[in-house]
Predict the structure.
Amino acid sequence: MKVNIRQIIGNWNDGYVLDKHSLHSEVVGQNAQGYPVWNTTRTEVGEALFQLKYRGDFSQIEPLAAQLSESIYPLFDRVGLIVPMPASNFRNRQPVTELALELGRLVGKPVFDELLTKTANGQQLKDLTNKADKQAALVNSFTLHEGISNEGRWNALLVDDLFHTGASLEAACTALRTYRKIDRVYVAAITWR
């Protein structure tokens, strides 16, 4: 899989994204309900993520997690555990959680998929266009559930699918940093917008 790794800056210790999501998008008409129909050209990684999230193609989990394992995971120092970004919407199978679980299997690290949860506040972040509005919508939206029984402090890798302003990742990192068992927080995302 072709990637174009990009470092991302936020309140985490270090973070990277595999590739841009879309290369080009144009309106080509309207559907029966009057909504625009888009013709979008995505990167290879962007297309795999699109197929996973919006077409339910869970065969994309393994290649995407393998790419995270090969291209981004080695950039972090002593990851102790992996945390998937909590989902905003309910799905029977959560793509980010499954990506984190597969990455954990590949690198031999535990995945704490219930360490963080996100409270639904009715506001869709994808409908907000700037970081300040997203930050305001995210206030108190993440809850930490202490679940690490081992002694010591651990470096956590927070996995997400799409990076835009970083507001969600920063809110999640803020919540993770309140846990005395967490030391450094790293971030890995599949695509950026």
Observations:
- The helical segments are 44-55, 61-71, 95-107, 131-138, 167-176.
- Residues 161 and 190 are 5 Å apart (CA to CA).
- The radius of gyration is 17 Å.
- The chain has five helices and nine strands.
